[in-house]
Design brief:
With 405 residues, the chain is α+β, with helices and mostly antiparallel strands. It is built from eight helices and 25 strands. Strands 14-13-17-16-15-12-18 form a seven-stranded antiparallel beta sheet, with no helix packed on it. Helix 1 links the parallel strand 1 and strand 2. Helix 2 packs parallel to helix 3.
């Protein structure tokens, strides 16, 4: 399952050339940069900090593109996104892809940026980015797929990344398209729409595989050049956008299960023990048993439905306890095996926050989103143990500004 790349540890470099000395101008490219930057920094889409989204318009030299990319690759700890929009040129002798700069000339390939150099900057030996996405909106951009970024096994060995995704606006033998009168180029227009509007009937967040399929379908339906994509390792699972077409209820991790305080909001989660074995039943069908509670063990009552309790066992949402007579709350002084010393509570986050594995804090375990209540069931150091995606527990390391329910 895809997990949204952490915007706090990610960077984007957006490069565009719209005004040329020897080639046709592409006015829509300037708008591409503006529209894509707005989308990536929108908290409802990805929430990339403004300072982490670098826009390079009309670069005067290859160094003005490569140096910032290399710098961002070295300081990014999560996902690096590199985007280029402009003319794409090919070397008549080697078929290599070159990215046009303002003074580029078709007959002088050295006046353009060789794509291979951009690839090397992204995968610099000192790069820290765990994931890399390169998006090319230019003619013949599919030629980049023929290079080592997508085809060589050396990429995984040479670059410290979990995954690499290369998405291009056209095949290696096809030009891209900038339709007259349209705000954006054909490819980037669909890309921005997918990011800002979401993709109906698809998961949240949107991973690169889902994004590619959507763009391919949309552009094919309009008889426009078809995008291409290649992934290395888990590149297709990289996610840089929430799916805004998904309703808040559907997008909540484990939607349909316990995820919000009870309707009267007076219910406070508590630990309890049962005096004799008690049966748990399904929340959907009270005639269906789903487990059993045993004396001498503490369980978590997370919510109330009528006279029944919604019970968690070992951090998992188990079901309804219909018989609540004679149960003993942890604060009643019952001498059970272990008396929990943490009082569970509901919480909401002010901005998207990542959950990490309890075994390895470098491994993401899910994401908490604003506007949804989650259950804190324990504490480890300064971190909270929170029931998150799929009713699995993870650690919330950043607890600043959380709201208690």
């Amino acid at each position: 399952m895809a997990v949204l790349s952490d915007p706090a540890g990610s960077e984007a470099v957006l490069v565009g050339v719209h005004d040329y000395t020897h080639l046709a101008d592409l006015p829509a490219v300037a708008r591409n940069l503006q529209g894509l930057r707005r989308a990536l920094t929108d908290p409802a889409v990805w929430g990339l900090p403004a300072e982490a989204c670098t826009v390079i318009s009309q670069p005067g030299s290859a160094g003005q593109v490569l140096d910032p990319i290399r710098d961002r690759a070295r300081r990014t700890t999560d996902t690096l996104l590199v985007y280029y929009s402009g003319h794409g040129l090919t070397d008549p002798y080697t078929d290599e892809l070159y990215l046009a700069l303002p003074d580029s000339d078709r007959e002088r390939e050295y006046t353009s940026l060789r794509y291979e150099y951009l690839r090397r900057a992204v995968l610099d030996v000192r790069a820290r980015a765990r994931r890399t996405v390169v998006v090319l909106d230019c003619c013949y951009s599919g030629r980049a797929l023929l290079g080592r970024m997508s085809a060589s096994a050396q990429i995984a060995d040479q670059a410290i990344v979990e995954g690499t995704c290369l998405l291009t606006a056209s095949a290696e033998t096809r030009p891209a398209l900038s339709p007259p009168g349209e705000t954006y180029t054909a490819f980037t227009g669909e890309l921005i729409a997918a990011l800002t509007e979401g993709i109906p009937n698809e998961p949240d967040p949107i991973d690169m595989d889902t994004l590619y399929r959507h763009l391919h379908t949309r552009l094919a339906g309009r008889s426009r050049p078809l995008p291409q994509q290649r992934n290395r390792n888990t590149g297709g699972l990289i996610a840089i956008a929430r799916n805004r077409a998904v309703t808040p209820r559907d997008s909540a991790p484990g939607a349909g299960r316990v995820r919000s305080p009870s309707s009267d909001t007076d219910f406070a989660p508590f630990w309890f023990a049962v005096p004799v074995p008690r049966r748990l039943v399904s929340r959907d069908d009270a005639s269906t048993p789903v487990g059993e509670l045993l004396p001498g063990t503490w369980y978590l009552a997370a919510e109330q439905e009528g006279d029944a309790l919604v019970v968690f066992r070992e951090g998992q949402c188990e079901g309804l306890l219909l018989r609540t007579d004679r149960i003993q709350r942890a604060d009643d002084g019952l001498n059970a095996t272990v008396v929990p010393d943490f009082a569970p509570f509901w919480l909401a986050v002010p901005v998207p926050r990542r959950l990490v594995s309890r075994d390895d804090a470098s491994i993401p375990a899910g994401e908490l989103l604003p506007g949804t209540w989650y259950l804190a069931v324990g504490q480890e150091g300064d971190a909270l143990v929170v029931v998150g995606e799929g009713d699995r527990k993870g650690l919330l390391m950043d607890t600043a500004g959380i709201q208690r329910g």
